[in-house]
């Protein structure tokens, strides 16, 4: 009975530590994502930005050719 209680307490403490670590990781990733998003808004030379500009121009002023872009992962 006592052993079972301490086993649960130990497992709960371990899960709380893991949850704290994961929350910190999520916050770090959100900050990094926001930073990258901000950088992408300022980017004027990358293919992604040029394609986005071309698409927005196409929707506002009729059909236009957009640069061919391949996204490699």
Notes on the structure:
This protein has 73 residues and is an all-alpha fold. Helix content is 77%, strand content 0%. The protein has one domain (2-61). The protein starts with a helix and ends in a 12-residue tail after the last helix. The relative contact order is 0.07. The mean pLDDT is 76.
Write the layout of secondary structure elements.
Blueprint lengths: L1 H41 L4 H15 L12
Observed structural traits:
mainly alpha; 73 residues; 2 helices; rod-shaped
The number of helical runs is 2
Q: Would you list the SSEs in sequence order as H and E?
A: HH
Which stretches of 5+ consecutive residues score pLDDT under 50? none
3D shape: rod-shaped
Instruction: Output mean pLDDT.
Output: 76
Helix/sheet category: mainly alpha
Radius of gyration, whole Å = 24 Å
Relative helix content:
over 70%
Oligomer: single chain
What's the story with the biggest beta sheet? none
Distance between the termini: 53 Å
* Number of self-contained structural domains: 1
Strand content: under 5%
Beta-strand segment tally? 0
Brief description of this entry?
By secondary structure, this protein is an all-alpha fold.
